[in-house]
Write a structure and sequence with these properties.
InterPro entries: FAD/NAD-bd_sf (IPR036188), Flavin-dep_Halogenase_NPB (IPR050816), Flavin_halogenase (IPR006905), Trp_halogen (IPR033856)
Number of domains: 3
Shape: globular
CATH topology of the largest domain: FAD/NAD(P)-binding domain
Organism: Rheinheimera baltica
Bound molecules: flavin-adenine dinucleotide
Low-confidence stretches: none
Structural class: alpha+beta
Strand order of the largest sheet: 5-4-14-15-16-13-17
Pfam family, one: Trp_halogenase
Protein name: Tryptophan 7-halogenase
CATH superfamily of the largest domain: FAD/NAD(P)-binding domain
Length: 497
């Protein structure tokens, strides 16, 4: 029986892992400890999330109001992409389903047919989340009102450092042991190569049955001691740096969405929290130097900076395996995709949920590792393709960075998906894909890509019936979003009670 679990690292990944283990394994009598360096800082940037994050906190039994207060969160209904198609273009990838369930085929097929007859139609009028975001409105979905309303997905913008602190309290009060020390050595069993123990800078030795590597980009256990190679995706995702700076909150930037503005060699984010705004410029160092990037960021922020900008370096990609011998890497130690679709924290929770379910013993370890690795890489590759989509579909005509993105050879999986959509209007979606057909369509349409043909089946609905149906969905969405309170008022009222 393996029942001694050691988590190396205390960033967002380490504490999310510890919290879920506290809820699951500790209750079953496992011993879990987390080792965190008192000197090595965390990345601490992950501020934007996707709707699965709401479910993760619910699963932990965390009270939403308490969480929102303590991590200074705002609500997030999607991402506003500006200048991605070409300068002046503007679309929202919203978190709700597109339209309703559709009378036969998924709704997007009806929208695509409608669009052929009404080329000026705006897809955002059929996404409840986008419609609310445009109006700066928010309220919790209420299934009692309508199925359209219950389909409103939402996530949070959070202060990542406060979130790690929150989970630290959660985990340590539920039997996770917290050790503050630097790991200086990783001892492997000479015959099996399995990790036996970690040596700390005060000479303590921490032995364990199973180790979770949350040491960030260093990947001390999986990449370092177990030598699992890193697969780079930089040929598709060229950005490798970020400059980040917090700024003052204003009434104008307290919006329920993340802003992602394409810039000369990358893009800039803006994330509103209750006490400040997070900003960052993600860029490729091959096309823009660090000084240029910093000046560009400071010239584009819309309120007073609250600190000096700081720089982070990264490479897009993943480890060839996430689970090797008796070690699983979670968080940045397992791989990284730039924050364009805010997916890193999702990948953390997905990995630890999978691990909790597949938790091994000495006999089951290898076969479970194989399964875990297959599922995790499939999920990560789908997200990779979705992120690449934003870059490869750009129609910006002047900058070398964007032109190189237009001309790059795509992964086969994405090439096929695009070909299928362009020729048949079919968006293939399977359970590994975090992003729904509606998400894919909002980026495709937002960046000007419409299919050549529609599905045969869609033409069975008479035109007048289609007109009536589309108008009714649009009116319901306009009415629902119109009735909602302003995002800021909603949060203020919610936190006062
Ligand atoms: C520019 C940027 C923007 C991002 N934005 C988002 C976003 O909007 N949304 C999102 O979901 N994600 C985002 N991310 C990703 C997100 O920040 C990470 O997924 C998240 O912070 C998890 O990091 P981590 O815990 O894996 O690593 P880290 O935060 O680096 O933590 C590593 C931990 O390991 C410890 N450690 C390291 N070496 C040792 C040692 N020798 N001994 C003991 N301890 C050690 C450190 O002290 C630290 O506690 C962003 C990332 C970057 C780079």
């Amino acid at each position: 029986m393996w029942n001694k679990v050691v988590i190396a690292g205390g960033g967002t990944a380490g504490w999310m892992t510890a919290a879920l283990m506290a809820k699951t394994l500790c209750r079953a009598g496992f011993e879990v400890c987390l080792i965190e360096s008192p000197t090595i800082t965390t990345v601490g940037v992950g501020e934007a999330t996707i709707p699965s994050f709401v479910h993760f906190n619910r699963l932990l039994g965390i009270d939403e109001k308490d969480l929102l207060k303590k991590v200074k969160a705002t609500f997030k209904l999607g991402i506003n992409f500006i200048n991605w198609d070409k300068p002046g273009s503007d679309y929202i990838h919203g978190f709700s389903a597109l339209g309703d369930q559709g009378p036969g085929l998924p709704f997007y097929h009806y929208w695509l047919r409608w669009q052929k007859r009404h080329p000026d139609t705006n897809i955002e009028d059929y996404f409840l989340a986008s419609s609310c975001a445009r109006k700066n409105k928010f309220m919790h979905p209420d299934p009692a009102v309508s199925s359209l309303f219950s389909g409103l997905g939402y996530a949070y913008h959070i202060d990542a450092s406060l979130y790690a602190e929150y989970l630290k309290d959660y985990a340590t009060s539920r039997n996770v042991k917290h050790i503050k020390a630097d790991i200086t050595d990783i001892r492997l069993n000479p015959s099996t190569g399995y990790i036996e123990s970690l040596r700390l800078d005060d000479a303590t030795v921490i032995a364990g049955d199973f180790f979770i590597d949350c040491t960030g980009f260093k990947s001390l256990l999986l990449g370092g001691a177990l030598k699992v190679p890193f697969i780079s995706w930089q040929k598709w995702l060229k950005c490798d740096r970020a400059q980040v700076v917090p700024t003052a909150l204003t009434n104008e930037n307290f919006v329920p969405y993340t802003k992602a503005v394409a810039q000369i060699a990358g893009w800039q984010w803006r994330i509103p929290l209750q006490h400040r705004v997070g900003n960052g410029l993600v860029y490729s160092s091959a096309y823009m130097d660090d000084n240029q990037a910093q000046s560009l960021l400071l010239s584009q922020i819309d309120s007073e900076p609250l600190a000096q900008p700081r720089m982070l370096s990264f490479t897009a990609g993943m480890r060839a395996r996430f689970w090797e011998k008796n070690c699983v890497a979670v968080g940045l130690s397992s791989g990284f995709l730039e924050p364009l679709e805010s997916t890193s924290i999702h990948m953390i929770q997905s990995a630890i949920s999978r691990l909790s379910m597949l938790f091994p013993n000495a006999e089951t370890n290898s076969v479970l590792a194989k399964q875990f690795n297959q599922e995790t890489s499939a999920e990560m590759e789908k997200i990779r393709d979705f992120v690449i989509l934003h870059y490869c579909l750009n129609n910006r005509s002047k900058e070398p960075f964007w032109q190189d993105c237009q001309n790059m050879a795509l992964p086969d999986s994405l090439k096929h998906k695009l070909e299928l959509y362009r020729n048949t209007a079919y968006i293939h979606h399977d359970h590994n894909d975090v992003f729904t057909e509606g998400s894919w369509l909002s980026v495709l349409v937002g960046q000007g890509v419409l299919p050549r043909h529609s599905m045969q089946m869609i033409n069975t609905m008479p035109d007048e019936q289609l007109d009536h149906y589309m108008k009714s969905v649009r009116h319901q969405i306009a009415a629902l979003s119109g009735q909602m309170p302003l995002h800021r008022d909603y949060i203020q009222r919610m936190l006062m009670v």
